[in-house]
Write a structure and sequence with these properties.
The chain is built from four helices and four strands; from the N terminus they run βαββαβαα. By secondary structure, the protein is an alpha+beta fold. The protein has one domain (17-125): Transposase IS200-like (Alpha-Beta Plaits, 2-Layer Sandwich), CATH 3.30.70.1290. It has a four-stranded antiparallel β-sheet, sandwiched between helices. A hairpin with a 3-residue loop joins strand 2 (55-60) and strand 3 (64-70).
């Protein structure tokens, strides 16, 4: 996070860090597969670079991803549309086997990657939110904590 040198825009200076969570459609546990997890991680960073949305801490559970994003001058629905749209389109280009018909082992035939619902909210306590993201199953501290915790349990 950029505390010393905040982002500068033509009519504004500052940053707006939000806790974001995108869930996989039908709760498929695709992020238990390291290849898919690394694919989404790479695509999230690409989208963030493309749309100039800085990302910070990122953590995965088996069927969703949490991260911090500085949404700058964007509104929440636009951030969700940009990041989810880019990552889903490219993800299926890299992993077309997931779009195969059900009989052939596909998981997302005729549908998209992300659940239509998402969460983008301002963290009340940034330190606890960072700890929560790190404590995800595939977060920085996830293996040490033996699974996901709720925000209330971290206090």
């Amino acid at each position: 996070m950029r505390k010393e040198n905040p982002a500068r825009f033509s009519s504004a200076v500052g940053e707006v860090w939000m806790h974001c969570m995108f869930k996989v459609k039908y709760c498929h546990k695709i992020f238990d597969d390291e290849i898919y997890r690394e694919g989404i991680l790479t695509l999230l960073h690409e989208a963030a670079y493309l749309y100039e949305i800085p990302l910070d801490e990122i953590g995965f559970d088996d069927n969703h991803v949490h991260f911090l994003a500085d949404i700058c001058l964007y509104d929440r629905p636009t951030v969700a549309k940009l990041l989810r749209g880019y990552t889903a389109k490219k993800f299926f280009e890299f992993f077309p086997e997931l779009k195969r018909p059900k009989q052939e082992g596909g998981l997302f035939w005729g549908s998209g990657l992300w659940n239509p619902a998402y969460y983008i909210g301002s963290p009340k306590n940034l330190a606890y939110t960072i700890k929560y993201i790190q404590g995800q199953k595939y977060g920085r501290l996830g293996a040490m904590r033996k699974g996901q915790r709720t925000l209330n349990r971290l206090r």
